[in-house]
Design a protein that fits this description.
One of its GO terms (biological process) is establishment of protein localization. This is WD repeat containing planar cell polarity effector. It is found in: Cell membrane; Cytoplasm, Cytoskeleton, Cilium axoneme. Belongs to the WD repeat fritz family. The protein has a domain of 219 residues. It is built from four helices and 31 strands. Strands 1, 2, 27, 29, 30 and 31 form a six-stranded mixed beta sheet that branches. Strands 23, 24, 25, 26 and 28 form a five-stranded antiparallel beta sheet that branches. β3 and β4 form a beta hairpin.
């Protein structure tokens, strides 16, 4: 039976990960010299030779100006106290991340391994708040929302920055002369909301939104107006005029996901759950809605209710936007086809916490439980997966805990970009662990 064969590459030098020498499908970096505990590494030299024979680095070089080993350790220290709020693949050679403290990280790759790490602290202390809850990285601007302030900030990059970013291998840091920071107030009761942002494909309008159940956690310090109660804001992102709130609305349901359509640039697509807890309802459901801006107001132009056997905990929209994949609390999956108004139900080994479609839409990958990775095709048939081994043992779940020791759980996964930033040719998934490390799962597709 066919299965997905993969390699797990950990961008870390930590000994605490406890990667086995006999695990030829899992790789990490090591410091120079013999291992600290030789008795635990019987095949240390054999695996070193195995890696180097395949062109994989064993010890990160530390030559100037890159000083890769020091940069990797600095990144690991940052991840111990900060979360990765956004990951963006510019192309197959360049991955960018925004951390919750405002640090921008750019990782340049050779295959699945790190070639350079650029840690840019230019934005730290220059933002309206200390904690970034969400961000979007693009060629023209960086969009951010914050925990402590009801504001959205945009960092506009000038032409010089954009030109250097287009190479896909930018390692130069931002400078004050290259950026312009603007902010705009959005609604909400005030402070400590997990606000999220999204950017349109044309990068001229943005969304800021948050869940309705977060509003009940704090009392209003004033008598709220309708605008203050709204939780979905449409914002203009003109470089000349800065950020400006165009309109806002309060969603009927509790949003699980909000984003711009990639096909109809000014349509906003949401997945909303009933405002009241679904445990007290006779049946569970989710609403998939379409919003548009007309005459200065946001209008919901369509709503489709999807009956479900259990409350959803995650979702992923197919790149074609014709189907919606929902992960349910009872460890099942629902694939809803908008064209035929038909749902397909399939079991899942564990409740999926995060899921993502391959950019071509052929495969969906998800993680849940105790760091278990699962793959499904477009018909929700499970695809067996295994790491490279002398005798590969493919199974419906890939248990990452069998290949490394990590105290923090997975907090996100992102498919890489293909050749020239397109969907074709991508075979890499970024895995983000709470507290580190960063890792990539490289599938050996078509080999």
């Amino acid at each position: 039976m066919a299965f997905c064969l993969a390699e797990l590459h950990l961008w870390s030098t930590k000994n605490s990960l406890q990667v086995k020498d006999t695990d030829i499908g899992t790789y990490q970096y090591y410091d120079k010299g013999d291992p600290a505990n030789p008795l635990e590494h019987h095949y240390y030299n054999e695996k070193l030779q195995f890696c180097e024979a395949r062109g994989y680095s064993w010890t990160p070089r530390n030559r100037r100006p890159e000083k890769l080993r020091d940069s990797l350790k600095e990144l690991e220290e940052l991840l111990q106290s900060n979360t990765c709020v956004h990951t963006r693949w510019r192309n197959k050679y360049c991955c960018q991340m925004m951390l919750s403290n405002g640090v921008l990280v750019t990782v340049t790759l050779k295959g699945p391994q790190v070639d350079q790490v650029c840690i840019d602290r230019m934005l730290v202390g220059r933002l309206p708040a200390n904690t970034v809850t969400d961000a979007v990285l693009s060629d023209r601007l960086i969009l951010m929302s914050f925990l402590e302030q009801s504001q959205v900030a945009a960092v506009y990059l000038n032409k010089k920055s954009q030109d250097s970013l287009e190479t896909g291998r930018r390692t130069d840091k931002l400078s004050l002369s290259e950026i312009k920071v603007t902010c705009v107030e959005v609604g909400g009761p005030g402070r400590r909301l997990h606000r999220r942002v999204a950017l349109s494909r044309l990068q001229d309008v943005a969304l800021c939104w948050w869940k309705l159940d977060e509003l009940s956690e704090e009392a209003w310090p004033w008598t709220p107006t309708d605008t203050h109660k709204n939780n979905l804001f449409l914002i203009s992102c003109s470089p000349a005029e800065g950020l400006k709130v165009l309109c806002s609305v309060r969603t009927t349901g509790n949003p699980l996901d909000c984003r711009f359509s990639q096909l109809q640039h000014y349509q906003m697509l949401t997945v909303e759950l009933p405002a009241e807890p679904q445990e007290f309802r006779e049946g569970c459901c989710a609403d998939t809605c379409v919003y548009e801006c007309a005459r200065g107001r946001l209008h919901r132009t369509s709503i489709t209710t999807i009956p479900l056997p259990s409350p959803p905990v995650s979702c992923a929209r197919h790149p074609s936007e014709t189907t919606l994949l929902l992960g349910l609390r009872d460890s099942s999956l629902v694939l809803y086809d908008h064209r035929r108004a038909v749902s397909v139900l399939a079991p899942c080994p564990v409740p999926p916490s995060y899921m993502a479609w391959h950019p071509t839409g052929a495969v969906a990958i998800m993680v849940g439980g105790q760091e278990e990775v699962m793959c499904f095709d477009v018909g929700l048939a499970p695809l067996n997966v295994a790491l490279v081994a002398e005798e590969a043992a493919p199974a419906t779940t890939l248990r990452l805990t069998q290949h490394l020791t990590c105290s923090g759980g997975l907090t996100g996964l992102h498919w890489g970009a293909g050749l020239d930033g397109g969907p074709e040719g991508t075979d890499t998934v970024t895995l983000v662990f709470n507290g580190g490390p960063l890792a990539v799962l490289k599938f050996r597709l078509g080999e």
